[in-house]
Write a structure and sequence with these properties.
This protein has 252 residues and is of the alpha+beta class. The chain has two domains: 6-84 and 225-236, 2-Layer Sandwich (Phosphorylase Kinase, domain 1); 85-206, 2-Layer Sandwich (D-amino Acid Aminotransferase, Chain A, domain 1). It is built from six helices and 14 strands. Strands 8, 9, 10, 11, 12, 13 and 14 form a seven-stranded antiparallel beta sheet that branches. Strands 1-2-3-7-6 form a five-stranded antiparallel beta sheet. A two-stranded antiparallel sheet has the order 4-5. A hairpin with a 4-residue loop joins strand 6 (70-73) and strand 7 (78-82). Helix 1 runs parallel beside helix 6. The two termini are 13 Å apart. The structure holds uridine-5'-diphosphate. Residues 90, 92, 98-101, 129, 175-177, 201-203, 215 line the site of uridine-5'-diphosphate.
Length: 252
């Protein structure tokens, strides 16, 4: 398929104009970044795995009635999605303490939280995506009260879905980040889960061994990142034999 004009290049994906108005092609790169892009590398096959895994999670969410921007996967590295206006928030859901929450509050990593905790960060790399409260979100007009109610509902439904799917394959969903997009349909607008859901944006620990199967492998130099993501894909039955990251050069 001929590619449309490049719209935006982020740390892990490139967005191109899609074939129809209101559509976008998301291209998954192999680039990995952490600590606000201070640590960078190219990880062979990561984009192929994330494309497949995100397709799997977004499709599953759609099947249980959680709206997403996902339309279809086009090839090994690209998927067609609905164009939406991204709300400038990173919506984080935590089931166990880890990462910045453990640091901020002095809670040991792995401690189960009394209930899922939803946090919001303002999406701005130059500020390091600072944690913000609903007061900030309302005062600066990033989202309305109705949007916030909908976002909380979406975040908790994604959490229940993802926790269950992961638990079924022996993986603990420690925390994850989603982004929410606004889609306009005539005079109406609705919110959908956008961006991607992949081990880049989740913390996934093997329930038996505690092995990390997410981007912390890269952040903390714990081994081969592609092996970890491939293990998640293998357990979910996502990558059929022969289409794995061993041949990522087929589409570039
Ligand atoms: N996360 C993400 N993008 C970000 C920040 C966080 O995908 O820009 C994810 C991260 O992978 C983890 C969860 O959100 O699954 C919570 O991250 P945390 O606040 O602990 O930040 P970190 O320790 O990664 O800096």
């Amino acid at each position: 398929m001929a590619r449309g004009k490049k719209i935006y290049e982020g740390k892990a994906k490139i967005l191109f104009e899609g074939p129809e108005p209101g559509t976008i092609v998301q291209y998954f790169k192999d680039d990995a970044t952490a600590f606000n892009a201070e640590k960078k590398d190219v990880i062979d096959g990561k984009g192929v795995l994330n494309n497949r895994l995100s397709e799997y999670f977004m499709t599953g969410l759609g099947q249980i009635g959680v709206p997403t921007h996902f339309m279809k996967r086009l090839n090994m590295r690209e998927q067609l999605v609905r164009n939406c206006e991204i709300i400038p928030l990173e919506v984080i859901v935590r089931n166990f303490a880890a990462g910045s929450m453990s640091k901020r509050l002095g809670i040991e990593e792995g401690t189960q939280l009394p209930r899922p905790i939803v946090e919001y960060c303002f999406k701005d790399d130059s500020l390091g995506d600072p944690l913000v409260s609903e007061e900030h979100i309302a005062a600066f007009g990033w989202a309305s009260q109705q949007d916030m109610d909908d976002i909380l509902g979406l975040a908790l439904r994604v959490n229940d879905y993802l926790s269950g799917v992961m638990y079924g394959v022996g993986i603990r969903l420690v925390d994850f980040k989603i982004e929410i997009g606004r889609v306009y349909e005539g005079d109406f607008q609705r919110l959908v889960v956008a961006d991607e859901i992949s081990p880049d944006s989740c913390r996934l620990w093997d329930i038996e061994t505690g092995r990390k199967l997410d981007k912390d492998v890269f952040r903390r130099d714990l081994g081969n990142l592609t092996d970890a993501y491939a293990e998640v894909a293998r357990r979910l039955g996502v990558m059929p034999k022969g289409t794995g990251p061993q041949k990522p050069t087929l589409v570039n």
